[in-house]
Amino acid sequence: MAHHTLKNGYSALVERLNRFPQGAPPSDALYKILKIFFSEQEAGLIALLPIKPFTAAQAGRIWKTDAVSAQKTLDSLAGRALLVDREQDGQVLYVLPPPMAGFFEFSLMRVRKDIDQKLLSELFYQYISQEDDFMYELLATGETKPGRAFVHEPALSEDNALHVLDYERSTQVIESASDRAIGLCYCRHKMAHLGRACKAPQDICMTFNSTATALVRHGFARRIDTAECLELLAKAWEHNLVQFGENVRQRVSFICNCCGCCCEAMIAARRFAVFNPIHTTNFIPQVENDKCTGCGKCVDVCPVEAMTMVSANDPSKTNRKTAKVNVDICLGCGVCVRICSKDALSLKMRESRVLTPVNGAHRIVLMAIERGKLQHLIFDNRILWSHRALAVLLGVLLHLPPLKQAIASRQVRSLYLEKLLSSR
Fold first, then answer.
1. Is the confidence at residue 385, as pLDDT, over 70?
2. How far apart are CA 419 and CA 281, in angstroms?
3. pLDDT greater than 60 at residue 74
4. Of 241, 63, 246, whose CA–CA distance to 152 is shortest?
5. Element (H, E) at 370
6. d(C-alpha 294, C-alpha 232), whole Å
7. How much is the CA Rg of the chain, to the nearest whole Å?
């Protein structure tokens, strides 16, 4: 395997990607993917960039070139959705997104001719769906996951609706976003190139806020208003698609509308079920056996195979079946509840509320601690942290539980951090 022995721009980029809390384990398929996206020179340049957002002037200093030349390179990468750019305080900031959710998905969010999307789809399928390392590290490592399920709002009773917090509603994410955009579903578009796509709608992948703004700017997504986005959400509900979004409370950047057959998150939820790879909702379906007719519709619609049919143990009807919920793997999405025509399924609250990170910084710090990568966030020696960025990071650390603080201190091995955490 050549990538084990060759030290080049691509191997340096792989090392850079693995400073993210969720990594991209080396693989021949990964190297082929990166060669489609980047020239070797571009890969080597990106490998030098910091994890935190940076300006063209900062990139120029790292690359030992002038800001104008650096900006030209950065704008070219952003124009291909390999970097995300946004304006803040009168200047343009750039950041390299992780592979997922990030530049892997962006590459298939529109039909394009500048890359071989069929070949790319085949490589994605190999790397993500046939090899285990990438999805295992992304979704099955650590307690904090990058994504979470949203409850299927049409399945909520009036009583349940009173207990759903705003950030747990996909409708609220849509209504509160500063910008909204729609692109092709990466997963179903990929499967279409493989001849395996289902009939669920493709033009339904939702992005929000600064991510949506950047994708619209470069033609990778279409800007829509609140009303159209809510209409598309209703369309997703009609097709029994599960809402899977960024695992944060504030400024969610994406919501995918997932089917069980094509979508990688749902496939991973089945493959790595024992590790609970997706944060669940705060609900779980319960079965009223007296009403259940054993029709099996809930089994057919469940994307993670949490519903099964078992004997109803009815002595008068020995062949009668009833639905059973595997609470250990159920996402609590409620799709099964909505499709049940006999009202035999309803949602109930889980015994303990699922905790959702406040924002992206909170989630990234938690994931970094759990994966042993916190040092990459603090000692990112490609460029010095700004006071603002360091304040955000340390602010998150100071509000962590004592056990997480202790792990953070051990990982960083900083007397300053140990003193800071112990002085609270």
1. no
2. 37
3. yes
4. 241
5. helix 360-370
6. 31
7. 23
Task: Work out whether the CA dihedral 237, 276, 15, 52 comes out positive or negative.
Answer: positive
- Per DSSP, the chain holds a count of helices (H) and strands (E) of 21, 12
**What's the whole-model pTM score?**
0.86
Alpha helices in 194-274 (DSSP H): 209-217, 226-238, 264-271
* Alpha-carbon gap, residue 148 to 279, rounded angstroms: 4
- CA atoms in the 13 A half-sphere facing the CB of 400: 29
For the segment 198-214, what is each residue's pLDDT rounded down to a tens digit?
999 999 999 999 999 99
Close Cβ partners of 260 (under 8 Å, ≥ 6 residues apart): 242, 266, 267, 270, 302, 303, 304, 305
Cα 117 to Cα 107: distance, rounded to the nearest angstrom: 8
Sign (positive/negative) of CA torsion 206, 184, 222, 155? negative
Rounded mean pLDDT, 366-377: 80
CA dist., res. 151 & res. 220, Å (int): 28
Convert the pLDDT of each residue in 330-365 to its tens digit: 999 999 999 999 999 999 999 888 889 888 888 888
